[in-house]
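Re-run with default settings, no changes from the original entry. Doing this only to confirm the output is reproducible before filing.
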Amino acid sequence: MPFCRKEWSGVTAQWEFVLCDALAKVHPVRDPRPVSAETRFQAFLGERASFQLAYRPPLEPTFRDPRPLQVRVEGTAADLVAMSSVDLVPCAFVALPGHDDGYEFDEPGLYPDVLRPVPNGEAPVRFGSWSAVWFDVVTTDPARAGVHQLTVVVSAPDGSELHRAPVAVEITGIELPPLDIVSGHWMHLDSLADHYGVEVFSEEHWAIVERFMASAVEMGATSLLAPVWTPPLDTAVGTYRTVVQLIDITATSDGYEFGFDRLRRWLDVCRRTGITGVEVAHLFTQWGAKTTPGIVVGEERVFGWDVPATDVRYRELMEALLPALQAVLDDEWDREYVVFHISDEPSGEDGLASYLAAKAVVADLLKGWTVVDALSEHSFYTSGAVEVPVVATDHVEPFLAERPERMWVYYCVSQDRDVANRFIGMPSARNRAIGHQLFASGVDGFLHWGFNFWYTWHSIRRVDPFADTSAGGAFPSGDPFAVYPGPDGTPWPSLRHRVFAQAMWDHRALQAVRAAHGNAAALDLIDPDRTLRFDRPVLDPDHYYAARRRITDALTTGSRV
């Protein structure tokens, strides 16, 4: 590994530096994987070309200087570079016993995940362990396209130079097409209000919502869950989460009146940040659709766990509310990009019966609108209960064999074996794999529940995500969220946030190849043997850099191989 020697504080200070790609995870006590000679740091217009510089202070007991290093970037494209410190987070639940071999870490510990912005270039020093600085290079200006020669310079607190690392970054002057599948993520507005201690739908809350929505778009999200009423998700039976209902409902002698100002504002924020899809919150509770959401009428909660799904009062509300809501959506949005949900993750014979009973309450009111729901059991599709299934990636093969007209896939806590996922304990290549898999399978969308779920299991209490990455030990670390709450309502991305974005850019690049050369030519670049499946993610990081090189060559030179 390359290192510099520097006389510092009376000792020969042997610093070590290693250039790493964006799919490396720099563990504090494991030597980092250096970038391979074949790796090319490349990005399209608007995409981040990312790399890391790992560093370790002298392994000498006499070295005790805790002051941060100073990092800067030189070169004509230095103004396109943003830096972050790769900070460690505690992971109490990393992997289940008996897990597969596709994990990088499997024991409780401190692992790299949060990307803390360091605009001043200060890189923290941890005695006896590796640290890393993350670099993003991005531009939307075609005039800045080309291969840029950058130099990363690291200096000691006294100004003396410790290391220089030349880095070539290629910005390909191609604007890729928008993602042509749904990339749906559930952003929890109550989590934002609760963590930052702001009033729901205050101006401060709206500002925070917009910043986190923009961060979701940066991650590759195209669709978010709209809390037209507080989503009945991940909530202990008999309890309720902070109310984040977008619609005002007033009971009158003639029925109900509705106010949609907050919903229209929500949709306006979606437009400004680049969200194109709207998911209406679930019409019934999770895991079987047995009861109603905690809907507030006036100032009081009128529906909830104590009101059955088939209660006539709920039908009366829906008869009035759904047509009015749909009129607003038709006025504000293209209904092709709007979906409704009945209930999340129904299962079992009892679950099928209760799901069908709940669906019957609103089925006539949803005609002409798309209804999708997440599920694992094939019977929920074959019975006709779920029109557009969102299928767990470890249960998807029977669905792919039948090729529904439309289907999405999802992964979450239970998809911990053999499939792609983004747990902190998994290698980053297992996160990036989903882009190739989604393209190769030809499915219509992807869904994930945890963009910013900063609670324990069933939302029983709030957690500090910098201290608890596993929802109080309920889910593998990283499953509940992909973004951290930085100061003053500023989202801080995770490594997993950045790598998932790379997966979505992979999909967009493959779309461009398909448009230019055909689908078979695009598949030849990532899956020439046609063996790629959801239960066979490629875990070799070099595969993704080599595939991107082939994709870029196909788009810039016309080569199909």
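The chain has a mean pLDDT of 95. The chain is about 25% helix and 25% strand.
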